[in-house]
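Q: What structure does this chain adopt?
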Amino acid sequence: MAATEPIRNKEHLKKLAGYYLERGQVRNYTMIIMGVYTVLRISDLLRLRWSDVYDGEKGAFRDHVEVTEKKTGKTRSIALNEQVRGALRLCLQHRRSEFIFASNRKTGKAISRVQAWRIIHAAVVFVGINGKVACHSLRKTWGYHACRSGAVPPVVIMTIYNHSSFETTKRYLGVEQDDLDKAYLGMDLF
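A:
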């Protein structure tokens, strides 16, 4: 299986999410927004239930979602930013199941990983994004842009991803020779 790449172009990323928002497919739009901002693997994202993100008694979205990762068994607390809560607000109006990403065909079930891939792939093709972009690209995209902006220290990115080495994080972020060249040529110390 070939490694996926982050979505490097912010305009492509906006168009990717906008593809479904413009079509009124808020579940799919929310999946893209949450996939990027929560940095969850698709298997963990699809398991999310409304009770994980929304407190029905208070009638408000939670500040954090607590997730025990399927792959690592580690529990993470992920802050839900305003973009995620905004997407969830839209999606909540169309709630059909306890799952945020409810299947249209299987009552009481979440969509499958294959269906999630189809959703992402259709938007990628429409937008014209080149490269190996799939579900895991959403997870990688946040880290790529966090690293490029310089706003998030690499050790924090590594911790968010639960990587045991920076080498893994570096590969994950898709650091390429162009990025290295920009770093070398962009420094003006004297």
